Amino acid sequence: MERKDVRIRRLWAEDDQLEECIGPINALLRVLSEDKPKPYQIDLGDLMLALDSDDFALYVLEVDGEIAGMGSLHFHRTLTKQTAYIEDVVVLPRFHGKGFGKMIMRRLIDHAKEEEVRFIELTSHPRRIAANKLYQKLGFVIPETNLYRLFLE
Ligand SMILES: CC(C)(COP(=O)(O)OP(=O)(O)OC[C@H]1O[C@@H](n2cnc3c(N)ncnc32)[C@H](O)[C@@H]1OP(=O)(O)O)[C@@H](O)C(=O)NCCC(=O)NCCS
């Protein structure tokens, strides 16, 4: 079988080719929001704003130069600790089951380790079977705490 070039890179606001990433990122957001009434979408301005933040890192996985997956990391500092939050983990369906989701997660975890955060959190709806299995396989556990959310809209 033909060998593929698979790499993960961090996107930066200064990236010359950032505009070319918008289409593929929105394709991934559509996969992520398949069960939502309205698909998630981002434009170049908002992407640059996010990438400009020191508390945010977005990684894309490329297969032969094509963006096939992504995941983001958000740092959160309080008076007592620094933690990280993982979001936007998704792989295009035709690339599922090849270990790419795990690769993206490992890169995000490595980055969080470099920043010496105390723990990483994420949420995943129970119906996301593959995602929940992936997170558990990587050692994520459900902590004994009450998660509260105040919906403002
Ligand atoms: C979750 C997702 C990113 C996994 O990506 P992937 O590249 O297919 O996953 P991998 O090939 O790296 O698999 C890693 C592990 O996930 C689990 N997994 C993957 N696909 C699975 C499936 N269909 N059923 C059950 N477990 C599955 C397995 O534990 C697997 O480890 P193993 O191969 O050693 O058994 C992908 O399914 C996806 O994009 N889903 C839609 C978006 C989504 O739900 N994102 C998560 C939001 S919280």
Summarize this, please?
By secondary structure, the chain is α+β, with helices and mostly antiparallel strands. The chain is built from 4 helices and 5 strands.
Q: What does it look like?
A:
The protein is of the alpha+beta class and 153 residues long. The protein has one domain (6-137): Aminopeptidase (3-Layer(aba) Sandwich), CATH 3.40.630.30. The chain contains 4 helices and 5 strands. It binds coenzyme A (COA). The site of coenzyme A has 20 residues, from helix 1, strand 4, helix 3 and helix 4. Residues 31-32, 89-91, 96-102, 124, 128-131, 133-134, 137 line the site of coenzyme A.
What is the overall shape? Answer: globular
Can you list the ligands bound to this structure?
A: coenzyme A
Which architecture would the CATH scheme give at its second level?
Answer: 3-Layer(aba) Sandwich
Q: Helix amount, in percent?
A: 25-40%
The biggest beta sheet reads:
5 strands, mixed
Parts with pLDDT < 50 across at least 5 consecutive residues: none
- Overall number of structural domains: 1
Q: Counting H and I runs of at least 4 residues, what is the number of helices?
A: 4
CATH class: Alpha Beta
Beta percentage is 15-25%
CATH superfamily: Gcn5-related N-acetyltransferase (GNAT)
User: Tally of extended strands?
Assistant: 5
